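User: I'm curious whether this sequence folds into something compact or stays loose and floppy. Could you predict its structure so I can see for myself?
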Amino acid sequence: MTGSIGEMIFFLHTPLSHIGASLFFAKPRFGKLVTAAIWLLYMAMMMLLPQGTAWANFFLTLALHCLLFFVVTTGNIQEKGFLFFSYAGIYTCFGTLDTVANTRIQSDLPKIVVAICLIVLMQLLLYRVLLPSFRKVMPYIRSGWGKFYAVVLSFFVLVVMQAALPGMQPKSDKELAVFLLTVLAFCITYVSVFASMKNMVELTREKQRKTHAELLLSQVQSQAKAAELVRQNHHDMRHHNQMLLAYAESGNLEHITDYLKRHTEHIETITTGRFCENETVNNILKVFHQKAMEQNISMEIRAAAKPNLSADAPDLVAIVANVLENALHGAAESGSEEPFIHVNIKHQAGRFVVICDNACKPSLDFEEMPEYLRGIGIQSITATADKYGGSCRFSAKDGVFRCMVIMDE
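Assistant: Here's the prediction. I'll summarize afterward.
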């Protein structure tokens, strides 16, 4: 490679930077040593290949870098693509700044210092700012990837057109100022994108906290009612025993049988209902069953959730409560004369299954829910199901919306 010592330092750092991106920006397909060996071999082969025109070399290198990144990593293609072009754009910016610095600085020592500072700053930006922010919001981004790609690809194209293409590096002060303004505008836009995604995450978490608090309050109220029933039954037990004793002394077995039957029916009427053995799921069902009754929505529940599930209480709230809340809104807005919700929670083939059908607007008709209908609740359901190796499906037909969530027990 020809160039100044600063450019040489940045060039030598390049394979380490690419290896780090393959290991930490996505899930590596191979071990660390194998991934490093693949990239080093690739870089060596690129140096030995015959050189074409400068522009052809640039686009060929970009295409091969992208292909190799996808080969040595696994995971969601959309997420990997977003991270790759984010990395490529940032790397190109810093590489361009290093080139500009080396053309304007005459002494070797300042060139070395600038190159090292740019490398350190780039790593901090990638691994302390970009990657942590992305991982924080990534589980909640299940739709609308197009607009995020538009931001990062627009920036990448602008950088390539202004600085990265051979012979296009900023030479005059005016060109450098335009380039720096482009980078600044992108940084502001990027911060805004992550801020909006962070707000979306906070809204989801706040919604889950409110639902969880409501469920805890319901549980406390249920326990208070149960305690009151115990006290009442204890107080009334003496009267019941006296009544049964009077019937027994008179030998009137028919009256004893009739009295016990009526008393049992009374107890079943005033006792708080129980839908399943899992306390969290049971409380969720009780809360939304009460809400449905208050809105005159028929709610049929069949639940068989086991006491011990792999999902913890907050995650069960995120799934089951969001499913039922969406169903409640859908049934209320359906315009149906007899709005309904049918819930079926079961275990099947080692999987925990939640199926919910509810009345919806007849105009809704789809096999897969379109992106513009996927709100915070749907995103929370999907993200939580993914956490436990699960899947979700949302469909609507003939005035019935169906949500099906399947995940590991």
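Summary: The CA atoms of residues 40 and 229 lie 74 Å apart. Residues 207-270 form one domain.
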